[in-house]
Structure formats: C-alpha cells, structure tokens
Amino acid sequence: MAERNVFLADIPLDVARARFDEALAAAGVRNDATEIVALAEALGRVTARPVFARLSSPHYHACAMDGIAVASARTSAARATQPLELQLEREAWIVDTGDPLPAGCDAVVMIEDVEMRDDARVAIRAAVAPFDHVRPIGEDVVATEAVVAKRRRLAPADLAALAGAGITHVEVVRRPRVAIVTTGDELVDPSIVEPRRGDIIDSNGVLLAALVRTYGGEPLAFPRVPDDPEQLRAVLAQARAAADVVVVNAGSSAGREDYTARMFAEVGDVLVHGIAIRPGHPLVLGLAGTTPLLGIPGYPVSAAICSELFLRPLIARLAHLDDEDDATLEVTLTRKLFSPLGEDEFVRLVAARVGERIVATPLRRGAGAITSLARANAIVVVPRTQEGVAAGTRVTARALRSRRVIERTLLAVGSHDVAIDLLAGALADRDLDLVSANVGSIAGLVALRDGATHVAGTHAIDPRDGSYNVAAVRRYGPRERVALVHFAQREQGLMVARGNPLGLRSVADIAGRGARFVNRQPDAGTRMLFDLLLARDGIAAGAIAGYARLEFTHTAVAALIADGSADCGLGIRAAAVALGLDFVPLANEPYELAMLARSLDEPRIAVLVTIVASAGLRAEIDALPGYDATAAGTIRYVDP
Fold first, then answer.
1. Phi then psi dihedrals of residue 504, to 5 deg
2. Is 570 within a domain?
3. What tens digit of pLDDT does each residue of 192-213 get?
4. How far apart are CA 331 and CA 547, in angstroms?
5. Which entry of 23, 429, 597, 629 is 20 to 30 Å from 159 by CA?
C-alpha cells in the first residue's frame, strides 16, 4: 500500500489527529471483545452490557430507624401530650436500624418518641402512617431492574450497588491489548550489571508499558529488536496477530537504521510521518487493516508526549473510556429541594444539557439508596443555613463524570417502562447515555413543558373517550407542537401471586374480596387507568384496601406482591413475569415518547428516534412479555 504523506513532513498536530481519527473511523477500528471479571476486580472497567439486579435491595422490609415496630393503625391516638401505651411483644417490638420488620407491623416509631415504662410496656408520643421509617422491599432497586447501564465505567459506588443487588461477576469490555516493541542495537535490559559504553538502558519499554496500564490497556511485551529490517518485519507480524494496537519505539526518524515507517508502509498505510511539535517530531502513525500502528520516537520525553497525545485517546476509544474530571457545573434544578436546617446535605443529581441549559434532576435521597450514587453524574451541597432550594434555581454542582458524558446524556422523565433499559443499551453503542426518572406520565409532560427533559414517556388515558396521550399533552405539555414517537404496545392488568389464590379477575374483585392493593402515585398513567376502571364499575377509592399505598414503578409493586406484603397491583405483564407472578390482563395501551417536534432535528434526538425504529431494538422489545413493538418509531404530532 502506498504512503499518504511526505516522509517526515511537518504536519500540524490538529491535522495529524484529524487524519488519524478519520482513518480509524473509516476502517471501523473498534473493540467489541468482552470478559467476565469478579466484582473485586471490576473497578474502573467498562460494562459490556446493562447489569440487572439478581436480588431486590433491600430484599426484605427493613427498619430504617432504631425504635419500636408497630401496626400503624394502632397508633392513631398517640400524642406528645398524651402518650399511647403499648404492650411489648404483643403490640410493639423493639427494633434496630436494618432489622427485618416484624410480622404484623407496617411502621416504626423512632426511639426519640418512645418511653420505656417497664420490661413489658412502652409509650409512644407520636402516631405513624403505614411504612413510616421503613425501607420497603426494593426501595433501592428491584430484582430484574438495571443497576448500571451499558458502557459504564465502574466506580466504587457502582460496585456497591451491584453487590447490594446480589451481583458477584460482571461482563466488561476487554482491555485493549497493546504490543510494545522497542528497537535499537544499543538497547540493553535494565537488569544488566555493567553496561558497556554506548549501551542504552531500555527504560522506554518500562515507560510505555506503565503508560498503557495507566490509560486502561493491557501491555504485551515483545523481545527487543536490533536495527534489522528482517527481524523487525517478523516481530511486527507477531505483534499484529496478538494485539489490538502495535507500538514500535524508536526507528521512526530519518536515520540510516530507522525502519519503522518503511515497515508500516509494507503492511498498511502510513498516515502521518512527522508532526510539527517539539519534542516528538518524528512520530509515525499508520493503519494495517483495523490495527493502528504507532511509531513512537526514542527519546523518553518524546515517547511520553507522543503517547499522551495519541496512544492515550486511542486506548480510551477502544476501551470505551471517558476521561474523568472534577469540574464544576452551573446547573438549573428541575425540582424543589427541601433540606433541614443545621446540616449540609449532599444531594445526588442527574445532569444533562437540554437546550441552552444544563438541567439537573435530584435522585432518591435516602442514605441507603446505593443506586442513587451509581446513577448520579453530579452532586450539589445544600448549605446547613438553607431549608432548601427552589425549582429553577441555578446552582453550582460538582461533576462526578466527565463533561463529555454529561453533554451527551439524554434525559427521559416520565412513566416507568422496563424496555427503556433496552433503549439505553442501544444508545450506549452510539456513544450516548440515557438516564430516566420515574415520576409518572403527567409529571413527565410537565418536565417537557418546563425544558427539564428531552423525552417524556407517557401512557396517559383520557377518561372521556379512552384515547391516549393527546389530551394530556395538550393539558400539561409544552405550548408548542409535540411529537409522540410510538415505543410499544403494552398489556396492563392485575399482577397477583402465583396461582391467583384470591381468584381476582377485575377491580371489582379487589374490593369485593378485601384484597390488599398497592397503588401508583397520582398522575401516573397506571394510576389514571386504575381510577378509570374504578369509575366505570362505580367503586369508590375508599373501598380498595391499600389505595393510598404508593410505589413509583411496576417492578416495585410486583416485588411487594411477590413477597406477600400485598395481594395485587395494577401493572404490566413484563413486570409480573419478571417477579414470578401471575397476570390478569385488563387493557392494552400505547407507550409513547413525547418530545418537542422541533427537537427531531437535534442530532442526539435523531439518533434516538432512528434506534427506536430499528429492527434490532424492536426485536428486543417484542421479546418482553406483553409487548408489541411492531409500530415502534412511527410519529404522530399534537398541536397545542
């Protein structure tokens, strides 16, 4: 193959970088190899695919405070001025933080509100509501939910979240293998006792191997090669067969025994030979098939500088790594933050650029919510002198991920859907991060209206005619044209224990048989459907035991039913199957992604819409129980 450049031409650095990058992209240079490693060895590695929870965290109803476990209904008469006396081991049980919630109890009274009367009696000075001071099953993550996304560089918090979800091994991108070939008749091993005059200790071999490890690659050492083209040709062939990248040190200049550029030209293309920098001028960049070739100059400083400029970004590209930094960000909060006076509170955020602003959505704030550490890409401190921060306030946050990651992040705020994790995985292959916040269909549309999200997942039914999403978009969404991108049809119904022991077939059966129900938050699409079904059957909300008990995802509801803490809940078939439940279908609904119509031309949104319509993602969604993605990617528009 012919060389593309003049020998030792003074090519500007930016031109050399662009030429190298364009050649790598055109040749399809990438690293799709993976390996499975133990969690203890996974720090800093990059996930090859999303990792799903094996266990819920917590996997039992856990007491969140030291105090007394009680049945909340029994405490309604308790007052600070009129304590309520309870019998230990009959009406109240002493518990510590983290203890399983005793049978028959649904709340904890904090120890500060408890008076010990004697060994058999306690008095409480405050009433509690159901699940006060209790971490319910799956509060942090529910079995089968994604814990970390694809292409995530695993940080300590990620490892903790994975461990909490019962994960012991993880599939990661294999580190790029970098062959290091040092050349020169004068090189000798550092172990030599008495070097001769003219011998040069091969320190560059040590330097380059250490740099490769630092950059996230795996160095492969090859025997030193004398200034002999035949031997270099043979070792170069071995190196190309064994490695993803080949680095030849020295022999890159124009001396009579400098063969690197000539050997590169024999096996591939010489893209660059000589760049306009000092030191490091005689750098050689080449490409043989899909194997990058780097001829690094022999002077140690030149070797280090050229490695930083070209080898480091190449390894990052192949390892799917992003440089981490500790920069600060000016972000606009999407929700009001409440914070107690007297304590500095560190609030985890998901930040992303939406339009001209970087917006930040607060994540779950409990001290036990490990996954909020794993999902966060920024953190803000609410000073102890403030009771909170209003929505829309600009604050300074500390970036936990690189600025590049934050700039490429897409926000999906709205209704919970298990297939969103599949979309996130497909977007990761296109170098985009998708993070979601499960706040319900209506809250998602409000976020879209307020410029606080790119996408709002919605399945909001109109009680007047049973249609979906259009009325909600007009009522709660932006005052401009909105595109509704079809994602999937989903089966909604009653999730019940295996065998459906209560024989539930309708919402009327829930009321008639006194079944313990778990509801969704107000304005969630599933809650809207449930309220409509109740209205159609003339059933009052108060007739449903557990109507006021709320969860924010289908899987969280399913986890409570699987544990026996509830008898039923409305949700999607996929969540029921994932948690080993039976399912009674009641409705078939469209789940759509709402976005500003004008945003369809924005590159990140265009990629998202293209992937939603792709045959690969449709096949993955179709494989989920109760899903039909035949129409995925079709768009309809809603005018205000």
1. -75, 130
2. yes
3. 767 777 667 777 888 899 999 9
4. 37
5. 429
